[in-house]
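Researcher: I'm comparing several assemblies side by side, and this is the next one on my list. It has 415 residues spread over two chains. Same procedure as the others: predict the full complex and return the structure.
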Amino acid sequence: MSERRHKHLVLILAREFASNLATPTLIADDRGQLVFYNEAAEEVIGRPFAEAGEMPLDEWTASFEPRRVDTDEPIPAEQRPARIAFDQRRASHAGFRVTDRNGVVRDVAVTAFPLFAHADEFVGIMAIFWPEGA
Amino acid sequence: MRLKIWGCRGSVPTPGPETVQYGGNTSCVEVSLAGGAVLVLDAGTGIISLGFDLLERGVSRVHLLLTHLHLDHLEGLRFFAPMWSDRVTLDIWGPPSPLVSLPERIARSFSPPLFPIDLRDVPASVTFRDVPREPWTLEGASLAAELVVHPGPTVGFRIEESGASFAYIPDHEPALAGAIEGRARDWISGAAIAGDVDLLIHDAQYFEDEYAERIGWGHSSVSDTVAFTHAVGARRVVLFHHEPRHGDGSLARLEVRARSLAARNGVEPTLAREGMVLELP
């Protein structure tokens, strides 16, 4: 029997759900790997997912230089909502400032929450984000 | 590995003159392993005849693997003769639920007003087991179960023995999670179970126009099943879970439709029928 390589059903359904949302949404798996973000997120991020591809969530988040809106200080990885949802298996929400890969500075709010399948199996996280003050 | 189909009808039993060729009993497939062990997939009404056959053959140990607990996959269990023999050991495997245990869920159908005898009073030695998250070994065969798109906790099974592989996904609507064609295999529901199998038994309940009116009911159109078969690289497919309104004539047309759709893929779909025996090398 080969090692399991396929996405969990919950992630498959989450991706389809996110694909039909106008709200920017991303999904990471149980290894902390970014596995999908939707078209609405592409607009905020400035890059299609097909171009970015899968990558570690921290690496992806760091590329936007997330920082506090009031002080402009960098936000450590462990204090970012997606990382909190992943590490602590709980919902988290925060607002911060990012610079997208085209150099555009944006204020965004992010709500991230863990995804549990039947029998409390942790399968990943989903994060929803949107521009603030738009 | 040898398979025998004892029931392949979906949703509700459909006895009558219109269903004599493909049968009217609901889901049940017997899997005979090389060492003589018997696995039974689902407990639709097809399991009733199988039960009498097993007792006649002197089988005293049975593993029953339930994909889910919708009635058409469970309704035969109360009349499964081995359950009523104190010489039989029965292991029942099924998908876990976050709220109610497997025996508690099954016991609902063994209680008033649905049934006069309580599940704990059946004579056979019955053990209930949640299917493991990871592949496991049973009677010398390798098994895997994965959740698939269908309302409520539902799994498909993959069974491998002596180099042969078989997948059983009788209730499945992979198209609900997005178009199948053109999608990477690891993003297709059920692909973890059915990838590159020698034989796939898969839901094909509807013609395309019927499916259009039943999206979200948990079953597949014939074209989605053909697309799924091709996407996962299955070498042979048997169409299963026949729509109750489809008599033998309609089902024959469904098979023609499937073969037309699959012609360019090199896999010739076959319609499941009661009594069908499938040998795997």
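Model: For your comparison table: The mean pLDDT of chain B is 96.
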